[in-house]
Design a protein that fits this description.
By secondary structure, this protein is an alpha/beta fold. The chain has two domains: 1-115 and 302-382, P-loop containing nucleotide triphosphate hydrolases (Rossmann fold), CATH 3.40.50; 121-299, Glutathione S-transferase Yfyf (Class Pi), Chain A, domain 2, CATH 1.20.1050. The chain is 41% helix and 22% strand. The protein has 13 helices and 15 strands. The strands form three sheets. Strands 2-1-4-5-6-7 form a six-stranded antiparallel beta sheet. The chain has a six-stranded mixed beta sheet with strand order 8-12-13-3-14-15, sandwiched between helices. It has a three-stranded antiparallel beta sheet with strand order 9-10-11. Strand 14 (354-360) and strand 15 (363-366) form a beta hairpin.
């Protein structure tokens, strides 16, 4: 999938922006606060019906306006013509989603049209944040490679909500609790198997990518924790925790407690690695997931990379650019302050598919790609 055209209306400081003839690599450069990140945010809104900065529509919509609108044309395999996507969010919380002029009733129908991978400051939550951030990362990948996942995930959410509601009551109806526990065991076991199978596919790709980005981190480990004793099936784990569940009023074990531990030398990576090393690990996680989504789910990702040079020196930034350029069919939207921060580091072979955009005070202007000057004899290139 790739965007060929993007129209942004009333998203933060972007009053009206029209971008034509988007390329496989699109670089947005400008000062802090100019609106670069807001362009990525608008694309995220188009693909996910929400911002990556939070769910509040009030902060997303331009000051004094009642709504924001993002429209795009997506080139997708199997479609004879670009597919139009449109999203409107109102300040009162109303959301309207259209694909090819047809209104959609759920975000799940939308996300398949524009699979996204985001690398930004919030991505550090994969190492330093709560287990919920890592579960969302895991489930985003499983959703795209296992078509049965969404239905089971929705069933599990209903089951655990009802079971916890019963557990909070003073008088528990044993027969009703048993029904919800049985259904929870079935759906929870299925979720655990989907996640485990996906993780086993993800792990070797992650190791290969992190070894290229940061060879010094070759002893890094990813450990999947399913949320209950791995020696027990989920039904038995629920039975073992039944007394604690009733006493404390909620379900203690299950997929809702799953996590991915990122370890190095027996310690959590977040406690050991520098900020730059953490960013390389985060990039490896996102690139590995995007690669797997393409291979297994036939979904070619759109990468939204905000301020890549931040926390990375030029050699490591170059390695990330090389890996992004190697992702089959991927489209990249990337921001930086100085255009040379990306322009000079991107592989020469991919420069014919690169577009540069200067952003200043909410105005986006397409620039001309400057030819790369080869070093002359007797000089070195740094």
């Amino acid at each position: 999938m790739s965007l060929s055209r993007l129209q942004i209306n009333r998203v933060r400081n972007l009053g009206q922006v029209q971008l034509q003839d988007l390329q496989q690599v699109n670089v947005f450069h400008g000062c802090n606060g100019s609106g670069k990140t807001s362009v990525l945010e608008a694309i995220h809104l188009l693909g996910m019906a929400r911002s990556f900065r939070g769910s509040s529509a009030k902060s997303l919509i331009s000051h004094g306006k009642s709504d924001c609108v993002v429209y795009g044309l997506v080139n997708a395999p199997g479609y004879p013509a670009p597919v139009p996507l449109g999203i409107q969010r109102s300040i009162d919380g109303d959301i309207q989603i259209k694909v090819s002029g047809t209104a959609l009733r759920s975000v799940a129908q939308l996300v398949e049209h524009l699979p996204l991978q985001v690398i930004n400051a919030d991505s550090f939550d994969l190492l330093t944040g709560s287990p919920g951030a890592r579960r969302r990362y895991l489930d985003w990948g499983v959703f795209h490679v296992e078509h049965r996942f969404l239905e089971q995930w929705q069933r599990f959410q209903r089951c655990i909500k009802q079971r916890n509601k019963l557990l909070r009551h003073d008088k528990i109806r044993d027969a009703e609790l048993a029904v919800w526990t049985r259904d929870l065991a079935t759906t929870g076991a299925a979720l655990g198997e989907y996640r485990k199978a996906y993780f086993e596919l993800l792990l070797p790709r992650f190791k290969e990518i992190v070894s290229r980005l940061a060879p010094s981190l070759s002893n890094l480990e990813l450990r999947y924790q399913q949320g209950w004793d791995r020696q027990l099936d989920y039904r038995d784990a629920l039975a073992a925790s039944a007394a604690s569940d009733i006493e404390q009023g909620y379900t203690h074990v299950g997929p809702q407690r799953a996590d991915i531990k990122v370890m190095i030398d027996g310690r959590l990576a977040a406690e050991t690695l520098s900020r730059g090393q953490q960013k390389l690990v985060v990039c490896s996680l996102k690139l590995a997931q995007g690669q797997l989504m393409t291979e297994q789910g036939k979904a070619r990702c759109v990468y939204l990379v905000d301020d890549l040079p931040s926390e990375l020196d030029a050699p490591h930034c170059r390695k990330v650019c090389e890996l992004l350029a190697s992702m089959v069919g991927a489209q990249v939207f990337i921001t930086c302050i100085e255009r040379r921060d990306i322009e000079e580091l991107w592989p020469q072979a991919g420069r014919d598919q690169m577009a540069m955009f200067h952003v200043e005070q909410g105005i986006v202007q397409k620039g001309v790609l400057e030819p790369r000057v080869a070093p002359t004899a007797g000089t070195s290139q740094h």
